Amino acid sequence: MFSFLSKRFLQALLVLLGVSFATFIVGHLTGDPVELMARENATEQDKQDLRVYLGLDRPLEQQYFSFIVKAVQGDLGFSFVQQAKVSQLIAERLPATLQLAAAGFLLALAISIPLGIIIALNRGTIWDFLVTTLAMAGQAAPGFWIGLMLVVLFAVHLKVLPVSGYGGAAYIVLPAITLALQSSARLTRLVRASMLEVLSADYIRTAHSKGLRERVVLFVHAFRGAMIPVVTMAGLELAELVSGAFITETIFAWPGIGRLAVTAVSQRDFPVIQGVVLMSAAFFVLINFLVDVLYVVIDPRVKLK
Amino acid sequence: MSDAVLSVEGLSVDFAVGGSIIHAVRDVSLSVAQGEVLGLVGESGSGKSVTMLSVVRLLDARRTAITARAMSVDGHSILDLRPRALEDVRGPVVSYIFQDPLTALNPLLTVGRQISEGMRRHKGLSRTAARARALDLLRRVGIPAPELRINQLPHQLSGGMRQRVMIAMALAVEPKLLIADEPTTALDVTVQAEIVRLVQSIQREQGMAMVWVTHDLALLARLADRVVVMYAGRIVEDALAEALYDAPAHPYTAGLLASTSRIDDPFSEQEPIPGAPPDPRVVHPGCSFAPRCSRAQARCQGEVPALEIKADGRRVACFYPLTGSQT
């Protein structure tokens, strides 16, 4: 088990290194930052001074090295557009994104796991058909549309929830539901399929042949195995939410990482974009690592592989 | 028949597969007495496993229709039982050993857990008591180092050991009837013999009734008291083992025997039965074996022969049997 996880950990570090290199290179391919920053009447000498000041005159590998060293220390650079440290900008926005991600994710799990199991057990019935169709529609419907429809219904017509913004608990409901609906559409179908596959396994018949109670067969023998693919998928969903639900955050004016990134892109604020990408990648890698840990807990066979 | 542990009358099982209906088992009647070992023989798709799985309704109820004039196990009328009552019969009354122990054991649960859970459910044993008995059972079925094995997962065991675990699991609740559904098919030949011997010794010791489902007639020779031969969902012959091996009455049984190597005549030629088993979706108006039968006459094509009891107690479904012919 230890060797499996330490191997995965090393792999995760390598991935992060790769991502950092890619973002660093892209940052340098998109033009000379000095041209962007310097005043319009700046002389060639001024620009050269600025370049030296920023360390942009040094060889690329040295720049990359210091970028890594600083990034590890939590220094992701300086946004000249917003006149603030990137790390500080991200730190300000992260709590909102994490709140929304947690709310959306937990809601998605609370919807999809019971629902997926129930329709798997009632496969072929009208309920199965309805839920599967609805989930398919949910998967096909764009997130912004779902968000806007929710706003129209709950904020405009029923007037029970705020349209957008950040503040009390009421503000998180609609964006969280928007995210959860999309996530649970995907997860419900997976839970159903995975549950059906496990339920048709020989060992489920064995469990029945032993006269175990139906709920024991379901939750002790079937559920655990069925969760293996679901954990992978749920991990990806969570990673996506944590790295910023760009569209949903924009619709609901949610002050999270997603909106920070959208604004940064429109302002060509490269240090911020770089920082967000690097942070998202770090979350992806971290969550994937946690998924691997969960694998070992769920499926003891993994230890030996 | 009152001392029968298992008694089945007129059992039919239909599957719905992709729009068409397969008559997997048609009008099967059989019984197993206390302490008796019944061998149930047939080729793949003959309905032998389906017959035995329907004994405690282990088939997917959504896709199968089980009908029978009467079917009872140890006095429980199986088709009338509610799901909860059925759960009480599965295990202490009827236990199963399945064909492939790798897929039949839960890959995520330890061997000990899987042996214990039946005892905890049906005998109300505590966790520690069940574990202690599981250890005894593992020892009993000949697993070395049971203290180590009890905490292992199925994939950490060899095929033979896995099947021993299955056997321990089935025996844990001391069933009245043990159904072994091709328990040696997935194993190496050398291991097969050990497993057969093990199950046989346990069956004799406990005096429980047993049904051994197999396609291997030779294997049953030293195991079964009585042999029931199935073909295309029907019983074609039912006779005491000795009588059946000495003088098969149904041409299909004779064909099976001729295609089997014999220990007492190792150099005899093995003859395959010509043709292939019938498509189960097609309902044949006559005897299903007729197209492959050398003794078939016009009557066999248009009329299904009934399973008739002969003078020696043997049951045969053939118009022109090889022995005890009366027609």
From TrEMBL, chain A:
Task: Report TM segments.
Answer: 100-121, 133-157, 163-181, 216-236, 276-298
- UniProt keyword annotations, A-Z: Cell membrane, Membrane, Transmembrane, Transmembrane helix, Transport
Q: Does the keyword Cytoplasm apply?
A: no
Q: Tell me the compartments it is located in.
A: Cell membrane
- Highest taxon above the source species: Bacteria
Q: Which Gene3D superfamilies match?
A: MetI-like (1.10.3720.10)
Q: Which CDD domains match?
A: TM_PBP2
Q: Which Pfam families match?
A: BPD_transp_1, BPD_transp_1_N
Membrane topology designation = Multi-pass membrane protein
Q: Where is the ABC transmembrane type-1 domain?
A: 94-295
Q: Which family does it belong to?
A: Belongs to the binding-protein-dependent transport system permease family.
Q: What is the name attached to this protein's record? A: Peptide/nickel transport system permease protein
Species of origin reads Devosia psychrophila
From TrEMBL, chain B:
Q: Which SMART domains match?
A: AAA (SM00382)
Q: What is its main location?
A: membrane
Q: Where is this chain's protein located in or outside the cell?
A: Cell inner membrane
Membrane topology annotation: Peripheral membrane protein
List the molecular function annotations (GO) for this entry. Answer: ATP binding; ATP hydrolysis activity
- The residues covered by the ABC transporter domain are 8-257
Supply the Pfam families for this chain: ABC_tran (PF00005), oligo_HPY (PF08352)
Give the SUPFAM superfamilies listed for this entry: P-loop containing nucleoside triphosphate hydrolases
Keywords (alphabetical) are: ATP-binding, Cell membrane, Membrane, Nucleotide-binding, Transport
Q: Which domain of life is it from?
A: Bacteria
Sorted alphabetically, the Gene Ontology BP terms of this entry are: peptide transport; transmembrane transport
Among InterPro entries, the record links this protein to: AAA+_ATPase (IPR003593), ABC_Ni/Peptide_Import (IPR050388), ABC_transporter-like_ATP-bd (IPR003439), ABC_transporter-like_CS (IPR017871), Oligopep_ABC_C (IPR013563), P-loop_NTPase (IPR027417)
Q: Which GO terms describe its cellular component?
A: plasma membrane
Give the family, as the similarity comment puts it.
Answer: Belongs to the ABC transporter superfamily.
Q: Which named protein is this?
A: Oligopeptide transport system ATP-binding protein
Q: Which organism is it from?
A: Devosia psychrophila
